[in-house]
């Protein structure tokens, strides 16, 4: 009766801890960042999973409309906020994903490091430029509703 | 770093093509494409902010055959990466690891990708036809 307290999963024994003392001493493992990359990739994915249906609808509504109408739609408070959240989650997720692709396929060290730095800078710059555009559109477009 | 010949695991070409492997490759490829598309989104937002001729130039480029093919590819990649990403999240929670489950979820993603992408383009273009 060692399963008392594991209601619903009587066949599941307590998980043994396979980590060696050395692993525990070294803490965050060989990557020096633990599981942070994995978690950030998942969290940003879930944020986008929520936002994308909304934003696809927004972008579909831009087909064939003039700049003023598109501008007014983007300047609506919740659309601006959703787009800002999407831009942050999107470029972060892109940086994390491209990092893994480069780690897996680029085996020349100087090229790998150069690409990692370039991807990081490009994603940061594009995210900042997008946020600037969104904020500028929001504060220079009035009224919000029409 | 000392370079030494080390034994390698078999490469992709020794395996028979199967849906699980195709899905995995496409997930990465669509992710890389979407990174480029995200740069395009930044460019479009800046054009919208600049307004006037800047926006018209961006809108004309997107409405050109080249732009439409690009947008179609991006929409396909977005829907696919999103749906297959859900598949990955379910795996992360321990669901669907049986071989038969991975095949079934793979085909579900493939079919839903086509259906949802078609629905997006129907609502984008059909509404104006």
Cα radius of gyration of chain B in angstroms: 20 Å
Helix share of residues of chain B? over 70%
Q: Which geometry of chain A do the CA atoms define?
A: elongated
Distance between the termini of chain A: 68 Å
The succession of helices and strands of chain A, N to C, reads HHHHH
Number of helices of chain B: 4
| Strand content range of chain B | under 5%
* Class from helix and strand fractions of chain B: mainly alpha
Shape of chain B: extended
Structural class of chain A: mainly alpha
Mean pLDDT of chain A: 87
Oligomeric form: heterodimer
Overall residue-averaged pLDDT value of chain B:
92
Strand content of chain A: under 5%
Question: Hey, which two chains have the biggest interface?
Answer: A-B, 34 and 31 residues
Could you tell me the number of beta strands of chain A? 0
Number of helical runs of chain A?
5
Distance between the termini of chain B: 62 Å
List the helices and strands and how they pair.
The complex is a heterodimer of chains A (146) and B (129).
Chain A lengths: L20 H6 L9 H25 L6 H9 L1 H29 L3 H32 L6
Chain B lengths: L18 H32 L1 H12 L1 H28 L6 H27 L4
Helix pairs in contact in B: 1-2, 1-3, 2-3, 3-4
Any overview of this molecule?
- The complex is a heterodimer of chains A (146) and B (129).
- Chain A is mainly α and 146 residues long.
- Chain A has helices at 21-26, 36-60, 67-75, 77-105, 109-140.
- Residues 1-8 of chain A have low confidence and may be disordered.
Main traits of this protein?
heterodimer; A: 146 residues; mainly alpha; 5 helices; elongated; disordered N terminus; B: 129 residues; extended
